[in-house]
Amino acid sequence: IPLNHHDDWLSSQYPYAHHKMALRQQPPSKESSILIIGAGVFGLSTALHLAQNDYTDITVLDRAPVPSPFSAGNDLNKIVRAEYEDPFYTNLALVCSLPSKPKNNTDHSLDEKEAIDEWQTPFWSPYYRPTGYLLATSINAPQKARDTIQKSFSSIKNHPSFPIGSFSSIRSLSDIKEYAPMLQGELNGWKGYLNRYAGYARAAKALEHATTASREMGVKFVIGEDGHAVELLYKLGRANTKMCVEVKAVNGLVHTASKTIICLGAHIGTLLPEITQQVTAKSWAVAHIQLTPRE
Predict the structure, then answer these.
(1) Looking at per-residue confidence, does 158 or 36 come out higher?
(2) Where do the H-state alpha helices sit in the chain?
(3) Is residue 131 within 8 Å of residue 154, measured between CB atoms?
(4) Per-residue pLDDT averaged across 29-56, rounded?
(5) In what order do the strands lie in the sheet with 254-256?
(6) Nearest-angstrom CA–CA distance, 76 and 129
(7) What average pLDDT does the structure give for the chain?
(8) What is the DSSP letter of 284?
């Protein structure tokens, strides 16, 4: 949403909210109770960063232990890369704004860091392998697949945040063999590129690590039926603002907090139906093949 149209859009979507006040809310105090619904990538990241910035009363709810089978981030590994058709996501991966350590209670400044570089810090490096990323299409690939590669490559090949020498074009079998000699077959007509500034994350292990680190900093986790949120409970605040004050679990248990943050990904519409106009859940099939001992 363009920022200059945000107020009008918000008031049209949420007429019960005093939108200007909502947009100007101050960050909660460090002692405020904060409830995070969802212990996937977004929920754990939120809890971790809040704890690292000295918030002391954080509770995370989820219906399953970490790594949750309901989390899109739970897998053996996930590709870490920055090339996307939409430049917005390229910039998001390359330069992320992280909260800096506040100098005082009114300091809410941000540090800009390359998100991929964060994976190579001591905190995350055990769960990241900077292997590079080779992407190519075969001679029989549909035009849409070829166009996608070209759009992705165009978004990154001249991006100033990429280290010099990050990319090499793949135009022949010899190019592929140079970077991936273990690949067999003729591979005639395969074209694409190699991105050296990429790799893979040990996804499930990273989620577990974030959970352990958060717990060590005092974050509380409520798992199972007690943490399976099914309803948001509201009250009217100042200027008739609708405020979430409680969250009901599937077994009837009610959690109270001064701030509630919903991090449910594709499930978010189950708790916040109003947002379904903005969020579309998508998926694709994944095949798992059991290798033989010899393989």
Answers:
(1) 36
(2) 6-13, 19-23, 41-52, 87-94, 115-118, 143-156, 173-179, 203-216
(3) no
(4) 96
(5) 229-236, 242-249, 254-256
(6) 13
(7) 84
(8) -
Total count of residues recorded for the chain:
295
**Lowest-confidence region among 83-92, 108-117, 224-233:** 108-117
The answer to whether the bond into 293 is cis (omega within 30° of 0) is no
Q: Which residues contact 179 (CB under 8 A, 6 or more apart)?
A: 132, 134, 168, 170, 194
pTM over 0.85: no
Phi, psi angles (nearest 5°) of residue 235: -140, 160
| Residues 60, 39 contacting (CB under 8 angstroms) | yes
| CA distance readout (Å), 3 to 8, 62, 110, 129 | 10, 33, 20, 38
- State the residue for tokens 């990273």: 206
**Contact at 8 Å (CB) between 201 and 118?**
no
Beta strands in 228-274 (DSSP E): 229-236, 242-249, 254-256, 259-262
Check residue 1 and give its pLDDT: 34
CA distances from 86 to 41, 42, 80, 155, 197 (A): 21, 21, 16, 7, 18
Most confident of 33-37, 109-113, 181-185, 233-237: 33-37
Going from the C-alpha of 277 to that of each of 64, 193, 272, 274, the distances in angstroms are: 27, 37, 11, 7
Asked whether the predicted pLDDT for residue 77 surpasses 80, the reply is yes
CA distance 196 to 131: 7
104, burial (CB in 10 Å: exposed 0-12, middle 13-18, buried 19+): exposed
Q: Locate 71 and state its tokens.
A: 């989390």
Q: At what angle do helices 41-52 and 203-216 cross, to 10 degrees?
A: 30
For the chain, the distance separating the N- and C-terminal CA atoms, rounded to the nearest angstrom, is 50
For residue 84, give Cα distances in angstroms to 92, 148, 155, 226.
10, 9, 7, 39
User: Which contiguous run of DSSP H or E holds residue 112?
Assistant: strand 110-113
